[in-house]
Specification:
heterodimer, A: alpha/beta, Rossmann fold, Arc Repressor Mutant, subunit A, 2 domains, six-stranded parallel beta sheet, 7 strands, 13% strand, B: alpha+beta, Heat Shock Protein 90, five-stranded mixed beta sheet, 74% helix
């Protein structure tokens, strides 16, 4: 398990929860800071002292106060640290659940885990620590979509054409023939079947008839 | 903003000044001397007219600058022109006015000279008006002020002429004899000759023939020294008069012919006429034909010049009227410019304050909306949890669930008003927004989102689209119970159309808070949004930007 952990969050009560989780995982050497600048300096000093931290758990949003900060947000801190010390493992623990931010932190800046604060936040944090220790990436379920393919949402004109032909009473074989005659690709039977299956899932239809009914109800054909 | 406002005001102010300055600045040239010469030399009406206009203008300007000495001299010149053109009454008014102004000024050598000139001039005017006692009075006033003996001789001559006209020959003789006694001090030959001429004529009237002849001859001798033809004429004429009264018609005719010759040399019509008349009286009809012709042309010329002078006055008054009109026009323009300036400033502040008001109102509306949301969605729930906790019958887990619900709601409210993550691709932003509403319960499906050119869309429209979609999706999540939502994006000419449809329970359309907000947002970017829904028939929205 991790030996030396730094927790950076400006709310003491939340730190308390994080400490409980770490304690339950028998990680004893835990330090807390309430400013991003402090976190940065501690980590730098530890590296100079040849006793580096092996995990940073940080929030993203910090309330600005009288102290002038070099790093105004956890995001800036993460970006700077990952640039200078890619080997340091970082878990972001934040209320923020906008997918773009999650995607940018995990994808672009190579953050090791992203945990959303919430009812199950601490449980997820425990899972995240274990995953990160095993060199895996962990993302809370509610923002999991950040890492999935975006095209999952999108349908196109071809899909609509398929459903339209289906609604005209054509069988899949006939559809394939029709598409071939019009030089539209893909026109193979298997690709048509694949598409229709995907549409069935997207429109939560049990079968082809159900699919047509739903699509028609929505006014797409 | 503050700088901008200041510079705007400054600009208006400069414009105002510019307009004023253009009106007031006047190009002025001092040509008093030039026009003064014009008066004494010129016979042309046009030159006099111009001089008259010049001195009128100069006087107005001097009045404005409060330079009284200059006003006096201008009035004197004006009076001279009026005298020369035969407007004796006007000339008198101008001179009297000049005198009255002069009386208010401090006494100085220059002022004394001017006063003397004015008195002399007034004397001339009264003489022309045949007001002899007044004329003499004026000349006497001038005489009191006179120190140079040449000037005294002039005035003596003038007075004696009046006395002669009044047939007071004795008084005239006495005065002229006084003048003769002053000859030691006065060296001016012409004036001396004039005195002698006058004295000779007066004594002829008084019957002192020998003295008369000797004075007339003395005068002739003096004039011959100066070789002044025009003054010689007077002497010849006087001698002709003398001899004709002596009944010596040969000598008389002789001098009359000499006078006629001089008149021809000088080429003065009035002299010629005068001499011709004398010759005819003396029985010499050789010049009669020419005399008639001259008489006619002189009459015409006089008439013409009278007309011209009348015209001059009229022209001057017309041009004055014109300049007055121009002045009024200028003042009108200035007034208009001033009004525009005032209106501009006024409008500027009105618009500014209205804009400010609108802003304040918007802020107020937003605050009210958020506060209402916090009250409706959070405070009520917290209160419920509190009552539940008092009962203690509920399980720990139950309360935790409630609390999480409140937590999520709070976060949603905060998200609704939080900054939009714009630094990345807007298409990604929208997809992520829709994706976040995608769940096991609801499938969000989009069509054509990649066909839209999001890059060229202005920031303000992007924000509006984002917020409206957010509002629609939140409504869907809260109320619709839909499990499929479809968003179709289309390019229509230069506009973007977004069709929202869900398969939820629908609703009767009432403009509740959220939808009203979306409408306002779309209106501010000149777009349209239409809603369509009925119970059990899903919810539709069509958005065109």
């Amino acid at each position: 398990m991790f030996h030396k952990v730094l927790v950076s969050d400006d709310l003491g009560s939340i730190n308390q929860g994080v400490l409980t989780v770490l304690d339950s995982m028998s990680i004893k050497n835990v330090q807390q800071v309430q400013y991003c600048d402090d976190a940065y300096l501690r980590i730098k000093k530890a590296i100079l002292d040849d006793a580096p931290y092996d995990l940073l758990i940080t929030d993203l949003s910090f309330v600005a106060d009288y102290r002038e900060q070099q790093f105004a947000s956890g995001e800036e801190l993460v970006i700077a640290l990952k640039k200078e010390h890619p080997e340091l493992k970082i878990i972001v623990y934040s209320v923020e659940d906008r997918l773009q931010r999650v995607r940018s932190l995990i994808g672009t800046h190579k953050t090791n885990a992203y945990v959303c604060k919430g009812r199950r936040g601490l449980i997820e944090l425990g899972k995240a620590i274990k995953a990160v220790y095993n060199d895996a990436i962990y993302v809370s379920p509610q923002v999991e979509q950040a890492l999935s393919e975006k095209t999952n949402l999108e349908i196109d004109d071809f899909d609509i054409e398929l459903v339209k032909l289906l609604s005209h009473g054509l069988s899949q074989d006939e559809i394939s023939a029709h598409l071939k005659s019009k030089n539209i690709t893909p026109s193979s039977l298997s690709s048509i079947e694949k598409r229709l299956n995907k549409l069935r899932i997207q429109f939560k239809a049990n079968n082809a008839i159900h699919l047509i009914a739903i699509v028609k109800d929505l006014g797409l054909i | 903003m503050k700088f901008l406002k200041k510079s705007f005001l400054f600009f208006l102010f400069c414009m105002f000044l510019f307009v004023c300055k253009k009106g007031f600045s006047q190009h002025k040239r001092d040509s008093t001397l030039y026009y003064a010469n014009k008066i004494s030399q010129s016979q042309s009406t046009d030159a006099l007219k111009k001089a008259y206009q010049f001195f009128q203008k100069d006087m107005t300007a001097s009045l404005k600058m409060d330079r009284k000495d200059r006003v006096v001299s201008d009035l004197l010149y004006i009076s001279r022109i009026e005298f020369k053109t035969g407007f004796y009454n006007d000339s008198e008014t101008s001179s009297v006015k000049a005198l009255s102004i002069l009386n208010k000024l401090e006494e100085s050598d220059y002022n004394k000279d001017v006063r003397k000139v004015l008195y002399n001039h007034l004397g001339k005017i009264y003489k022309e008006k045949k007001m002899y006692p007044e004329a003499i009075k004026m000349y006497n006033e001038a005489l009191v002020l006179t120190e140079k003996s040449k000037d005294s001789l002039v005035i003596y001559n003038n007075i004696s002429n009046i006395l002669k006209n009044q047939k007071q020959f004795k008084a005239a003789e006495k005065l002229l004899l006084q003048a003769v006694n002053m000859f030691d001090q006065a060296k001016d030959t012409m004036e001396r000759a004039r005195v002698l001429d006058n004295l000779g004529l007066i004594q002829l009237k008084l019957g002192k023939k020998e003295e008369s002849l000797s004075y007339l001859k003395k005068a002739l001798a003096l004039k011959e020294q100066t070789r002044s033809n025009s003054s010689l004429y007077v002497s010849y004429k006087n001698l002709a008069l003398f001899y004709s009264s002596e009944k010596d018609s040969i000598k008389a005719r002789n001098y009359a012919l000499k006078a006629y010759d001089v008149a021809n040399t000088v080429n003065s019509i009035s002299y010629k006429l005068d001499a011709g008349k004398r010759l005819i009286e003396l029985g010499d009809y050789s010049v009669a034909k020419e005399f008639v012709y001259l008489n006619d042309s002189l009459n015409t010329a006089t008439k013409l010049s009278e007309n011209k002078y009348a015209l001059l006055k009229y022209d001057v008054s017309i041009s004055e009227l014109k300049s007055q009109k121009e002045k009024t026009k200028k003042q009108q323009y200035q007034f208009i410019a001033f009004i525009i300036f005032l209106l501009g400033t006024f409008l500027f502040f009105v618009l500014k304050s209205r804009h400010k008001k609108e802003k304040v109102l918007q802020v107020y509306n937003t605050e009210t909306r958020i506060s209402k949301k916090v009250h409706d969605e959070v405070a009520n729930d917290v209160y419920q949890v509190m009552t539940k906790l008092q009962n203690k019958n509920y399980l720990n887990e139950d309360v935790l669930d409630d609390l999480e619900d409140i937590y999520t709601k709070t976060r949603d409210i905060s998200k609704e008003s939080s900054a939009i993550f714009m630094e990345h691709d807007f298409e990604d932003g929208i997809t992520d927004l829709l994706l976040s509403y995608n769940s096991n319960a609801v499938n969000v499906i989009t069509k054509g989102i990649t066909t839209i050119d999001w890059q060229s869309l202005p920031e303000i429209k992007k924000i509006a689209i984002y917020r409206v979609l957010q509002e629609l999706m939140t409504n869907m999540k809260k109320h619709s119970k839909a499990n499929i939502v479809v968003l179709v994006f289309n390019k229509e000419n230069k506009k973007i159309s977004i069709n929202y449809k869900d398969n939820g329970v629908g609703c009767t359309l009432k403009k509740y808070n959220g939808l009203q907000n979306t409408e306002n947002r779309i209106e501010t970017i000149n777009g349209t949004i239409t809603f369509d829904s009925s119970i059990n028939n899903g919810f539709k929205a069509n958005l065109i930007i």
